[in-house]
Amino acid sequence: MTPAPVALFGYGRFGQAFATLLRAAGHRVHVVDPVAAVPAELAGTTAAALADAAWVVLAMPLRHMRAALLELRPQLTAQHAVIDVGSVKLHPQQWLDEILGTDIPHAGTHPLFGPLSLARGERPLRVVVCPSALHPGLVPRVRALLEGLGCEVIERDAAAHDEAMAQTHALAFYIAKALVEMGIGEDLSMAPPSFLGLTSMLAAVRGDAGHLFAAIQQENPYSGLARERFIATLRDIHERLQRESDARALAIPAAGGTGPEPT
Description:
By secondary structure, this protein is α/β, with parallel strands linked by helices. Helix content is about 50%, strand content about 15%. The protein contains 12 helices and 7 strands. It has helices spanning about 15-25, 45-50, 60-70, 90-100, 115-120, 140-145, 160-165, 170-180, 195-210, 215-220, 225-245, 245-250; strands at about 5-10, 30, 55-60, 80-85, 105-110, 125-130, 150-155. Strands 2-1-3-4-5-6-7 form a 7-stranded mixed sheet, sandwiched between helices. Helix 3 (about 60-70) packs parallel to helix 4, helix 7 packs parallel to helix 11 (about 225-245) and helix 8 packs across helix 9 (about 195-210).
């Protein structure tokens, strides 16, 4: 894709990382954030940022997104393609459809990476794109933009995205929250290799997006059900451990659900 001017609203940890990706790909970026310290060469007013922008990227916290859209709407035109980069998609898509309607092209995206994974040089960079039924024709442009940043694009509808994230992203944060509050993982002097995967998860959650915990738990409509199922499953395992003595029956099944590993 030919580099194009981008108006980036929100300069938190992910906004900063995304701005770096955009600039590395040759895009000219104007950043608007009333709170964060934005470098002088990127900072601009809303009017200046939107003046020639082809893309408008919403990178503010989810709790501020609807209000920001309402504030931006009078200044948006059909020249602007609007995307958000949040971790939850159903509510943002509803707001985008409601406020921008058929007049302003828009789509939802969720980059499945963060500042920590970028700093580590982890690849591939995967991004989920959730098309709006009002603007299906925008998807090829969004795909080209993201692929130009070195990303692999996965296309899903917003409901499928949120359900999948509830069973992966949200549960990982939920488990990590419990371990942190229990103080587990602070002393690794005797931690076996089997625990080191959990320490990697803790580091990723703390380093990339620990501040997202409330949003991905409370704003994703599927997260509560995933937590309840997880808790019920733990309770069932706990009760079975108290009443059963058959090691094979209690063993963790092999990958693929083919039963316990042979002894």
